[in-house]
Structure formats: C-alpha cells, structure tokens
Amino acid sequence: MPRMLDVSDDVRAEIGDEEADRLLAGGNAPGNYDCTSCRTPGDSEQERTSTVLFVGEETAVLAFAHASCIPSQVVPVSEEQLQGAVRSITGEDGPAAEPPAAPPPATPFTALPGEHRQATLGVTCGLVLVENDLRPALVVEPAGPIARPGSTEPGDAFLPLLLEHGFATVTDMALLPAPNPGWSVLLAAGQLHAILQPGSDGGQPSSWWQAHQPLPVSDGWRAAAAKARTVLVYAAPVGAVGHQPREDLMREAMEKAAAESRLVAASMPLAGT
C-alpha cells in the first residue's frame, strides 16, 4: 500500500530514485513506527511521515518521523554516533536507565565557529522556566579559555566567536532567546547526539558539538522538546556556570552569569530525530 512519505531531494539523491520510489510505493517502509523525534507512535498510512537519512563515514541508516516534528532530510553524523544509534534502536544496549534531571556534562571534541582546531566542551541538559513555560535547554561551557586561531593575545574569545555566529547576549533569563538560523539540535532514538551548525557555502550542516556517546535525556526533557519543537542553547565561558547537581542551582548560576554579561543563547529546532 502506498505510504504518506515525504522524501526530500537530498534523501533521494543519497538513496537513489529506485529506492525512493520503492519507499513511496510501500516497499521497505513500515506502516507503524516510533517517531525518531518525539518517540511516539506514527502511521505512514494515515499521516505525513518524513524519511530521515543518517549518514556516517561508512554507514547510512534510514529512520522515520512525523512530518509535523521534522522535515525529510539528510543528517551527517560520525560513524561512532551512527553505530550507537543503531544499537539503541535495535535494543542491543538494553533499556536505558532514567537519567537525573541534569546529567553530568558530556566532554566532546568539537570545532568552534571560525576555528579549524578542536576544543573540549561540556554540555548539561535541563529544563528552564521561560515565559511561564518549562523549556528544554542545553548549557554549553568549554573546559578552558578559547583563543582565536593565530592569536597570541591572552583572554577568552568563546563568547565573541558565538556572538559573531548568531548567538545573542542574555539580558533576562525570563525572555525566550531568538532563533539562530541554520543551527539545530540532533536527537536520535531519544538521545542527544549533536548540535549542528550551518554548512559552509550552503552545504550540509556540520557538528559544532557532538557527544562521544549518545547522551541520555530525561522523559520530561524529551517531552518538553517534542512539545516546543525547539531547544534553548545557552553558552558561557569556562567557570561561569559550572556543573550544578540540581536545576534550581543551574538556574541561579545562569542568572548570575547573565547579570555579568557572561551568557549567550539561541533557540534551535530539533533536527534529525
């Protein structure tokens, strides 16, 4: 039976016309599926469904999502991330334990905007109250000061680099950060995989931050992300916020950083899954 599938031009180019047409005709496409964005059931025979192709260095995995959650697209990820997602989807890792509200920061290596080298960033997940609604948030903080490439001047250029790439200084934690076009947050199989930045010259997005291993998020965080379809990404220089064991303490640290003009933010849509 034909499916109500959306297959973007980018996905079609990757899988080929023959496979794309086979999917649209009902071959190799599930009727029922778990949306890889909100993790709730979907039915490609009854509702618009997006095909999402994850592409690693050697492996590609086709996933399905509600078209109302995310559009059909190709999402580049590392091979390690892709294999981790496959293990999660197939259940080889077993059921994931419920994580704390603010799990320990991940410590990935990621390319900073405007740089050609790698830096270590920590990312903490949590819910923040903004405009009287609990919003899913990520707080990004580097392990040390970030210098501009080629600069010999002392200091930390982390926030200036982000301001140059669309983030905005937080002046009031009660206000919703503005969108940063081209940036997005990748959630795959219910786990946090990466923050994506725009590709150069309009190419495919690339990972600005990516987890060494997929980072579990709480059911509350995932539900809030599915409801808002956006994630608030905050960033602060080393030591400005730190890892806080509770969300109320994280909020206090963020408010202090904002009062000192040491906090930037942007809202980003969910991408991939």
Produce the secondary structure layout.
Layout: E1 5-6, H1 9-15, H2 17-24, E2 32-34, E3 41-43, E4 49-55, E5 60-66, E6 73-76, H3 79-90, E7 109-111, E8 118-130, E9 133-142, H4 158-164, E10 168-169, E11 184-188, E12 191-197, E13 206-216, H5 219-228, E14 230-235, H6 247-259, E15 264-271
Parallel strand pairs: 1-4, 4-6, 9-14, 11-15
Antiparallel strand pairs: 2-3, 4-5, 7-8, 8-9, 10-15, 11-12, 12-13, 14-15
Helix pairs in contact: 1-2
Region (Disordered): 90-113
Biased composition (Pro residues): 97-107
What does this structure look like?
With 273 residues, the chain is α/β, with parallel strands linked by helices. It has two domains: 5-76, no CATH class; 109-271, no CATH class. It contains six helices and 15 strands. The chain has helices at residues 9-15, 17-24, 79-90, 158-164, 219-228, 247-259, and strands spanning 5-6, 32-34, 41-43, 49-55, 60-66, 73-76, 109-111, 118-130, 133-142, 168-169, 184-188, 191-197, 206-216, 230-235, 264-271. Strands 7, 8, 9, 10, 11, 12, 13, 14 and 15 form a nine-stranded mixed beta sheet that branches. Helix 1 (9-15) packs across helix 2. The radius of gyration is 19 Å and the shape is globular.
Helix content: 10-25%
What's the total count of β strands?
A: 15
Head-to-tail CA distance between termini: 25 Å
User: SSE string, helix = H, strand = E?
Assistant: EHHEEEEEHEEEHEEEEHEHE
Kindly give the count of domains. Answer: 2
Largest sheet, in brief, is: 9 strands, mixed
SS-based class: alpha/beta
Overall average residue pLDDT? 78
Shape: globular
Poorly predicted spans: 89-111
Query: Helical segment tally?
Result: 6
Q: How large is the radius of gyration? A: 19 Å
User: Beta-sheet strand percentage?
Assistant: 25-35%
